[in-house]
Structures are given as structure tokens and as C-alpha cells.
Input
Amino acid sequence: MVESKQAQLDRVRTDILEKNICSELAAQATNLVMGDGNLNADIVLIGEAPGKNEDEQGLPFVGAAGKFLNEMLAAANMVRSDVYITNIVKYRPPNNRDPLPEEKKAFWPYLLKQLQIIQPKVVITLGRHSMEYFLPDMKISQVHGQPKRIHFGEGRLVVIPLYHPAAALYNGAMRQTLIDDFLQVPRIIEKL
Output
């Protein structure tokens, strides 16, 4: 019998908990924030790590950055239920600090498992922390909004690096850049 995608993702979650991945982060977090959305999505959005609201609710992108992400999805005629949303790091870092390299490295294999289960056509990285794992030698300021084909597992994957939605909250000029980049996504998917 073929195991459902949800059952496979539940197993990834259990694996993280049983292996006590990033135990220091886990000790101060309220929730392990795995991901949310459509398990058959063509698009997976990957952020950096949960923030305060995400930690409290156990869901990714539910705070202010999440509201802006919902606006960007709506501008591209999409809703959250069309996509799957996750982060590299699955626990909130203290005081919303950036995730540390060793934290990202510890969670990377679990993110890869999520992607292997969901099998999206496109991965949208939100911010440099998630981008650098897929596109290690690139600067987000130079490649944002540009689709990049990479080898991934047995096949290829299209990665679209975008600025993190939180950047738009602190920098008004970034808001339009993010929306403009996001509006290209449906066109990019059509070409696939």
C-alpha cells in the first residue's frame, strides 16, 4: 500500500521530534512548525524560520509577513490552499534572530524530504537564508524574481528567489519589488 503524502509528512515530523533536532531551539519553542497548504501543490514557498505568531499557532507565515504573503498570492490570483508553505528551520529562533548556519544545516535533510514528498514544479525561496541552500553562490539582490533551473535529486527543479515578505514591512520600496516579482510566477509556471 502506498503511504499518503500526509502520512509521509507526519513521519518526517515524528523523526524530527524523536531525533531531538536543534534541541536548544526546541526547548524554547512552543511548536514545531512543519508547513501548511496543498500537499499536491505545484509551488512550495520556503521561508527562513517561524516567528512569534507562527510559533504560537504552529503554522508558517501567519503574522504580518504572512498577511503580506497572502496579498502577494491574491495579486497573482492564488490563495494559500493552492501552495505549500514551510521554512528551512522548523523552530522559532530566540527573539526572531536569523537562523544559525548549523540550525539550517540540521533541518536541511527534513526540508528535502518535504520536497520529495510534495514534488513541486517550482520552489520559491523567501529571503536569502532559504535561497542560499538552493543557489549557494548567488546574491538575492542580483537574482530576485529570476527562475533558476537546478539539479534536484533525480530530476530538475525551478527555484525562484524572492525577498522575504518581512523585508517589505520595513522597506516600502521593497513591497512593490516583491509584488512585481511574485506576479511573474504564474507566467513562469505556464512556461514549464
Notes: The mean pLDDT is 94. Residues 101-118 form the longest helix (18 residues). The chain is about 50% helix and 15% strand. The longest strand covers residues 155-162.
